[in-house]
Amino acid sequence: MLSIRNLEVSYGDYQVIRGVSMEVYVGEIVALLGPNGAGKSTILNSISGLQSAQAGVIEFDGVHIESMPSHKIVRLRLAHILERRRVFPYLTVYQNLWLGGYNPTVRDERKRNLERVYELFPKLRERETQLAHSMSGGEQQMLALGRGLMADPKLLMVDEPLLGLAPSVARHTIEVLKQINQKGVTILFIEQNVQTAMSLAHRGYVLESGKVVIEGTSSELLNSGEIKRVFLGG
Amino acid sequence: MTREIIIQALISGLLMGFIYALVAAGLSLIFGLMEIVNFAHGEFMMLSMYTTFWLYTLFGLDPLLSIPICIVLLFVIGVVTHYGIIRHILDAPMLVQITATFGLAIFLRSLAQFLWSADYQVIDDPIVSGRIEIWGIYLGLPQVVASAGCLLAFGFLYYFVNRTETGIALQATAQDREAAGLMGIQTNRMFALGWGIGASCVGVAGALISSYYMVFPDVGIIFALLAYVTVAMGGFGSLIGALIAGIAIGLIEAAGAILVSPAFKYGIIFLCYLAVVLLRPKGLFGRF
Ligand SMILES: Nc1ncnc2c1ncn2[C@@H]1O[C@H](COP(=O)(O)OP(=O)(O)OP(=O)(O)O)[C@@H](O)[C@H]1O
Ligand SMILES: [Mg+2]
Q1: What pTM does this model have?
Q2: Structural domains in chain B plus CATH codes
Q3: Interface contact flag, A99 B181, Cβ < 8 Å
Q4: Which of A84, A144, A165, B21 has the smallest C-beta neighbourhood within 10 Å, fewest atoms?
């Protein structure tokens, strides 16, 4: 479904991604792991068109998207939920969700998609008229997820969905992501904690200084000695 | 000083306030969208006034009928400014952005002087003219019509920004460019639209006041200056803030002129402005 080959990204002279190749297959949940500054967010930003790549190929559903602007990529049903939620703070919950269905591919299906989002997150329906910035972190994460789902994505990319959430809210979010996946949405997500990530993902890639250093299934990663070195520096 | 004079002055101030509010709303819209101050805002207004003046002088078109033409013309000027200049300096240092729009202002001002001379021009016989009397208070009809027109335009703008889908997308772009792009919003088009609408605001205001205000190359300076103060006082990016602050400034100006001295009215405005920003740096309704 998503295929990345030899991706290279630089900020100015500083190369952050040094030849990354990854695959995400239909129906999977894939985790992207790695310490702070490894380049995880940069990879998702390059996929969704927010960051342009110096070299490499990104193919989604058979379409080359490496030089497409973000507003066109979302039309292919590829949604990206940014790090720290990034809901529109001074718009209401409803307006945020409605804009999630702005792109022409899903514009006509908005009502139906909104119903689905409300079924998944009943709280958002109750909070329809509340301004997004006045919601709690957990509620904002739901809103960000709901807004992404309004694009009826085939692939949902989520950058650190559990960041700053209380353990119980984080567990709930993991369950919700599993539910979304069971409804047929492929998921690629970023998470810092290996154990947490592997409780959700089928497979994972570990990134270090802009390169994939380990990849494998969840159990392979959990039992890997190399992963301790990357995360503990040991 | 009689009660009538004071009331009359305050009502004139209120009327002026609606005009300031619309001019400031245009400026505020652009700033809220991309954090760029359009220092050529007053010169855009000057272009609208000259357009109205020449349509009247050459073709006998009344200022009221120039309004739609000025809206379209200024919209185009705004959009062209975005694509021609602003788009290329979006990520440039602030000083570059300031000098770019400031440079545009100077250019337009000298162009006006070059093409039409520095002379003061007036539209001598507009359809709307004369005075009306309400309860012993006399008001110039052109002033009343101009203010009502600006208030109406402000209402349209407010409705557009808050109630239409494109308006909401515009707000989303202002609040988070990247997230807006991920929704499928073409942010660059939204910027162009913002510039178009921002400039159209002074298109309306310029056409309306041309029927009683003198037209000359520097005419925009004081309006723009008051608009910067209005926006800062009302809160950057807030339309309601622009309306309230616009009215406040109109009233302060009128009160200052009769209670202190007409010569010192702008001094009083800026004193009040300093007081507001010292007490509340983000302005009355500001988020920044
Ligand atoms: N806009 C930018 N300009 C310059 N450097 C950047 C920019 N964004 C990120 N970087 C740098 O690129 C590197 C990778 O950043 P990135 O955000 O992709 O890391 P990450 O793996 O997501 O980290 P974290 O876990 O902290 O979110 C970091 O060294 C960061 O400082
Ligand atoms: Mg990150």
Answers
A1: 0.94
A2: 3-279 (1.10.3470)
A3: no
A4: A84
